[in-house]
Write a sequence for this structure.
């Protein structure tokens, strides 16, 4: 864990850092008085400030104008520091999935289909969550 620490005037010692999987953690000891000024105890403490993973997924559904899922639509994921574009075909439920992406990157999701036209056929996404849904709807 990478940490930076502080101590305040009340003998509370804390440190903040990032653990091996990218979670922000605070840890340390708190000097607690137990009944007046006669007894005290140092209580160990640790708390995850964020459970966000540095790895995330982009997924979505492609539907026609009536809301029916469209299969076999080509979905292309590019940018975001990818060495090369990633490709997916929608399944029978119109779903596609791109796993294992770096968070805080800007990605481009674009679609193409020989049978359907889309008013919006490309969307730009800044991946900030564990998962991001990017859906498309075909023209009537």
């Amino acid at each position: 864990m990478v940490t930076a620490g502080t101590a305040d005037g009340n003998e509370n010692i804390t440190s903040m850092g990032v653990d091996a999987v990218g979670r922000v953690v605070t840890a340390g000891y708190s000097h607690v008085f137990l009944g007046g000024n006669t007894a005290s105890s140092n209580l160990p403490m640790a708390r995850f400030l964020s459970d966000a993973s540095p790895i995330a997924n982009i997924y979505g559904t492609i539907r026609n104008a009536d809301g029916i899922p469209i299969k076999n639509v080509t979905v292309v994921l590019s940018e975001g520091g990818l060495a090369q574009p990633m490709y997916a075909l929608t399944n029978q439920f119109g779903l596609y999935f791109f796993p294992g992406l770096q968070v805080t990157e800007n990605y481009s999701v674009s679609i193409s289909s020989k049978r359907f036209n889309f008013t919006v056929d490309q969307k730009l996404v800044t991946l900030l969550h564990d998962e991001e849904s990017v859906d498309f709807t075909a023209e009537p």
About this structure: The chain has a mean pLDDT of 77. The first strand starts at residue 2 and ends at 7. Residues 77 and 86 are 5 Å apart (CA to CA). The chain has no helices and twelve strands.
